[in-house]
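#struct-pred

JT: dropping the chains for the assembly here, can someone run the whole complex?
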Amino acid sequence: MSRKILIVEDDASTSAYLAKGLTEAGHAVEACADGRDGLFLASEGIFDLIIADRMLPGLDGLSMVSAVRAAGIATPVLILSALAAVDDRVDGLKAGADDYLCKPFSFAELSARVEALVRRSDRAATEPQKTRLSVGDLEIDLLARAVSRAGRTIPLGAREFNLLEFLARHAGQVVTRTMMLEKIWNYHFDPGSNVVDVHIGRLRRKLEDGFPTPILHTVRGAGYRLAVEA
Amino acid sequence: MIRLSVTARIALLSIALALVSNLALVGFVWKTTSADAIDAIHLETTEQSESLRAVWRSGGMKALRQAIGNTVVPGDVSLVLAVVDAKGQTVAGVAPARLAVPLRPTQFRIARLGRDELWSARESAYALHPIGSDWLLTGRNLDLIASEERAIERALALAVLLSLGLGVLGGLVLARYVGRRLDAIASVIETAGEGDLSRRVIVVTEGSDAFDRLAARLNVMLGKLEGVMAELRIVTDSLAHDLRSPLARLRTKTEQAVLIADPDAREAALGGLLVETDLVMRMLTMVIEISRSGSVSRDRFVQVSLPDLLEEIAELYAPVAEDAGLVFTVAIDDRPPAIALHRELMIQSITNLIDNALRHGAGGGEVTLRLVHRTDGIAIQVEDRGPGIAEADRAQAMKRFGRLDSARSTPGAGLGMALIEAVARLHEGRFELADNGPGLVARIVLPI
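RK: done, full complex below.
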């Protein structure tokens, strides 16, 4: 589904790279290089997502996000910044951003986050709160915290359930390792070891052992996707 | 405006101070001397006029004249003592031939008594009292006081000259001393500004004067700066050096990938490039975290329950350890109250400890994450049964980029322990390595 995305980025090559990638993914992109212009465009309220750099001429990214929020605009904001320390991320999220991605970034990571953000805001706007999620023959009861596949109950630990719920809420989309670390464990750093893969591996065994079709797929170089694939 | 050197200003100030103090001293002497002399004359005049009037009352004019004659010392020009008639003419004693002051009862007054040569030059202090139809004049010429005042004024002039001389001399000596001390400090600062941080200011009086205190503080600052610069140099050198290997691998792999014709194989090769790039990124991020950790403010700290935090981390890492074939245990001796921590940095440090244990101590078959209450604080420790680190090598292992030769063959940049050390310091705690007999105990000790 096509979205209107605003890019506020003063580095011309990054801006062009982002615009190209997002346009190829089917979105309508508008870009500007100045924080004040960004605030002006954001105030029109016509965008589905804003991607903003932190260090901008005119008005810095954090101030711009604060101003956007102060103006009552709820458009999801993804901050894209070279300021990568834990405290920088916390500052960004505190200013009102919905997500924070550090430069240099992989386009797969950015794309996954963009999808997650716009989906979430869609859901918040239109769908009533779901109590059940289903992906193919996989059924997740969010109230009872019970999972079954093809009618067979799959016992999951609390963290495994959270992981599966997160993947199911973004069914069909790529979910990256860092997104999982952030959302499931609330860790805003890269541990560098294969912790997420180990947990996904265990979850995958529980979801797939004894079933003919795979459901949790590895997306090379990016992350994982929960989906029934032909 | 003329800009004076510090030396010239000190000299001028010293001259001014000497001048003011000398003038004040001499002025005070001049003032008190003059006032005291007048007071003495007042007393003398009063006493004399009273006693002579008593003589007149008891013995009449004859006795008075005799008394005056006895009192007047021939040649004493300072004394005024006479009987004058109603017209002001002297009939007996020492006084101007004709008085120029009004004839009326006078207790004590200073005025010029006569117009003739002898008396006109100076003022006199006098008293006039009627005796019958005549007047009794007592008093003193002030020429003596005047000459005393002249002497003091001469002393004053001399004092001014002396002050100027001493001021110039003192000022020059002082300015030279101060200038020399300041020059020594300035020269060290100048050299430091040019990049040589090894010079120090020589302390002259073992810190008992302000210059030495300034010098000592400056020396401490230079010492710290030198340490920081040396560390920075090591970090920069090590970073450049350690980046070369992954970048070289990156380059080789890219080159190979470009040459692969099969699309699937090329994609696999490109995936490998991303892994390599991430490694470099992680290294750089860690360097930034370490250097930033020193300036993290305490408002980033949140109350954290350590047992909960450790259990959470263990939950994340236990499957990883199990997959690596290790027995992973969490041991929490007691449950201390929550303490203020930088949660993210602390988690990162603890996961670094566990990662190290998994990587280097895996051969021992077991890893324990333990929370220990000690007399000096709370220790978060990770114990393994691997080869451990010899005591002599431990300091090296904790340094930034301080990889031991035995660890060179495994991935990592030698930054993990440096980060842990920096984070421990941020929490006013410490990081230490100990022997687990066999194996390694790596612990972060936090004060409580």
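JT: nice. Chain A has eight helices and twelve strands. The helical segments of chain A are 12-24, 35-43, 61-70, 86-95, 107-126, 158-169, 177-185, 195-208.
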